[in-house]
Amino acid sequence: MILVTGGAGFIGANFVLDWLADNDEPLINLDKLTYAGNRSNLASADGNERHLFVHGDIGDPHLTASLLAQYQPRAVINFAAESHVDRSIHGPEDFIQTNVVGTFHLLETTRAYWSALPAAARQAFRFLHVSTDEVYGSLTATAPAFTEEHRYQPNSPYSASKAASDHLVRAYHHTYGLPVLTTNCSNNYGPFHFPEKLIPLLIVNALAGKSLPVYGDGRQIRDWLYVKDHCSAIRRVLAAGRPGETYNVGGNNEKPNIEIVHAVCSLLDELRPRIDGKPYREQITYVADRPGHDRRYAIDARKIEAELGWQPAHSFARGIRLTVEWYLANQQWVKDVQSGAYRDWLAKNYSQRQA
Ligand code: NAD
Ligand code: DAU
User: Fold this and answer.
1) Shortest-distance atom of ligand 1 to CA 102
2) CA–centroid distance, residue 85 to ligand 2 (Å)
3) Ligand closest in space to the Cα of 227
């Protein structure tokens, strides 16, 4: 079996559900259930004997050591993290605790477990660390896309904490020989995306008749990838990636934020028109920029394509339609995640941004 951490969050839940659907191997899903972790994301796996959910922290070495000893997984996939850049600006400490200290503890307990395995199992074992393109910093408009050789230049507390975790993972390979793999992926979107992030926030706000907040001039560029394609890349790297290597994962799909906003508005105009017949674009509001906002991310995914034969299966047009349709069909999920703490976050992040 495999041990997945953070499998109740956005990408982790998609990964777990796809894994259970695609093969027979059981998995343990260790998640702290922070505001971003949601058991209902995994509702379709309820009763599935191959899914063992454990509520706990990757930073708890006693818990992770006992899970490793009891279940003897052949791999650990580490999704668990604090993941929202704006939250890291308001309160970086949780990011250091989970992304840096938590990953360190998980590496330590994994190393102890792995070192004691019989030779064949030790050789076959993998620790796959799920990371981000944000560790590379910001690109100018004409610079080539990030390759795996690009220097680390993180600009937010979030990306700095992920960079630190990537360095620890690398060091555990270099120093101890732990068979690690690291993936650095661009912006994901799709089902179960928590509505603090741009795309789900747009959908949820649009339907509620609220403003669609665009930071700064809206010309920042991200490279968008449908979440199921990220999950397939992780499965491919786990199966065939070379220990010690990093693999950049992206959608070859660079778009300025304002184009994303327009795409979501157009789909909603088609699928759920406003009662007054006006376009959702009328709800767009330009607001104060994110401090230290990275201007452009772009992934050069030639390594994972050439070495492992991975490519995204969804075009942006297809992926964004599936995403908007998912949110329209899952309004109860949307209601359930909009807790008091969520509303407090919106007030904190948006009330002081001047139009
Ligand atoms: P998310 O915030 O939606 O989910 C994170 C999950 O981790 C939640 O279920 C949360 O409860 C859990 N968690 C947090 N702290 C924990 C801890 N200490 N112990 C155990 N579980 C804990 O995040 P996501 O968007 O699904 O991202 C998953 C991973 O992928 C992260 O490592 C992130 O850096 C990386 N990533 C995300 C994107 C993206 O676009 N969302 C892109 C590239 C990489
Ligand atoms: O690149 C990978 C990263 O993508 C992941 O590592 C992060 O975990 C993930 O959150 C995401 O980071 P971003 O900061 O790019 O995503 P976010 O959805 O927060 O913002 C996307 C862009 O939209 C960014 O340029 C900021 C802008 N934005 C965001 C929000 C929430 C707005 O203009 N308005 C908003 O209200």
Assistant:
1) 18
2) 7
3) 1
Nearest atom in ligand 2 to 290's CA: 26
User: Which residue has a Cα nearest atom 4 of ligand 1?
Assistant: 9
Q: Which one from 31, 57, 133, 223 is the annotated catalytic residue?
A: 133
DSSP line for 187-219: -EESTT--TTSHHHHHHHHHHTT--EEEETTS-
Confidence of residue 355 (pLDDT cuts 50, 70, 90): low
Distance, in Å, from the CA atom of 198 to the CA atom of 344, rounded to the nearest integer, reads 17
Please list, residue by residue across 39-60, b when 16 or more beta carbons sit within 10 angstroms of its beta carbon and e when fewer do.
eebbeebeeeeebebbebbbbb
Measure the CA–CA gap between 8 and 198, rounded to whole angstroms: 20
pLDDT at residue 201 is higher than 80: yes
Q: In what order do the strands lie in the sheet with 180-185?
A: 51-55, 27-31, 2-5, 75-78, 126-132, 180-185, 246-249
pLDDT classification of 352: cutoffs 50, 70, 90: confident
Q: Which residues line ligand 2 (CB under 6 A)?
A: 83-85, 132-134, 186-187, 197-198, 201, 213-215, 220, 222, 257, 290, 297
Domains of the chain, earliest start first: 2-191+225-252+296-314 (3.40.50.720)
- Residue whose Cα lies nearest atom 36 of ligand 2: it is 213
Widest CA span in the chain:
68
For residue 97, give the ligand 1 atom closest to its CA: 18
Q: What is the pLDDT of residue 353?
A: 86
Question: How far is residue 295 CA from its own chain's centroid?
Answer: 19
Handedness of CA 315, 254, 350, 212 (dihedral sign): negative
Whole-model pTM over 0.70: yes
Provide the β-strand partners of residue 247.
183
Is the four-CA dihedral 349, 102, 152, 14 of positive or negative sign? Answer: negative
Ligand of minimum distance to the alpha carbon of 155:
2
